[in-house]
Amino acid sequence: MGEISKRTGELGEEAGYRFLERIGWSNGQRGLSIPCNDSTKHIDRETHGIDYLKLYNCPLIQHRLVNAVVSIKATKSAYDKYPNSKFKTFLTELSDICNCYNRSDEKNAALGQFLENPIDSDSIIGVLLWFSNDASEENRDLLKETATANIEGLEDFQFEATYFVDLKRAEFMWEILGHADSNYQSWEFLYIETGLNYREDIKIKSGSLLPVEYINSSIIPLKYSRPGSENLVLYTIDPFNEEDLKKLVGLANKLSGAFAGAIHILFPDYVINGNENNVRKILEYFRDDNLADKVTIGSFKDKLFR
Question: Per its UniProt record, what InterPro entries does this chain match (predicted)?
Answer without folding.
Answer: PDDEXK_GAPS4
